[in-house]
Amino acid sequence: MTHAVPLVADPAPAVASAAGLLANAIKARPEWRALADARAAFRTDPGMSAIMARYRAAFGRLSAARARGEHLSGDDALELAEAQQALQAHALFRRQNEATATLVALLREVNRMLSTALELDFAANAAPPSGCCG
């Protein structure tokens, strides 16, 4: 059974209902399930957890060095590069990225359909006005 997705703002009951139906239709797609499965596998795999811990530690050293106005030492830079390479080479990382790209393609198609119906770019007009990064 699918549950309606609650909306933060309720501009009008018909719009809220349609938005919930659209969200549920997207969540019923295989692209959504593939991403959910890939994320779950990524989060629960012990090998991936070890790689992520190593990457986060190395990235934390980079962030701390930057905050101090410094660069990473050669050993720390090498550790970060190796951890990033291990992360990107892992099958679960690639699976999650591929599933994300597939879902994004679906969402772009949904945006195209909405934009055509509305005669304006739905996603561009719905995005926060804060510029680059939210």
Q: How would you explain this protein's 3D organization?
A:
The two termini are 34 Å apart. The chain contains six helices and no strands. The model has no long low-confidence stretch (mean pLDDT 90). The protein is mainly alpha-helical and 134 residues long. It has a domain of 93 residues. The longest helix has 28 residues. Helix 2 packs antiparallel against helix 5 and helix 3 packs antiparallel against helix 4.
Question: Could you give the topology of this structure?
Answer:
Elements: H1 13-27, H2 30-44, H3 46-67, H4 74-89, H5 91-118, H6 122-126
Q: What is the N-to-C order of secondary-structure elements (H for helix, E for strand)?
A: HHHHHH
Rg, alpha carbons: 20 Å
Beta strand count: 0
The percent of residues in helical segments reads over 70%
The biggest sheet, with number of strands, parallel, antiparallel or mixed sense and barrel status, is:
none
Structural class: mainly alpha
What do the pLDDT scores average to? 90
Amino-to-carboxy terminus distance: 34 Å
**Number of helices, where a helix is a run of at least 4 consecutive DSSP H or I residues:** 6
| Uncertain residue segments | none
Q: What global shape is seen? A: elongated
The fraction of residues assigned to DSSP E strands is under 5%
TL;DR of this structure?
This protein has 134 residues and is mostly helical. The protein contains 6 helices and no strands.
Which key features would you list for this structure?
mainly alpha, elongated, 75% helix, 6 helices, 134 residues
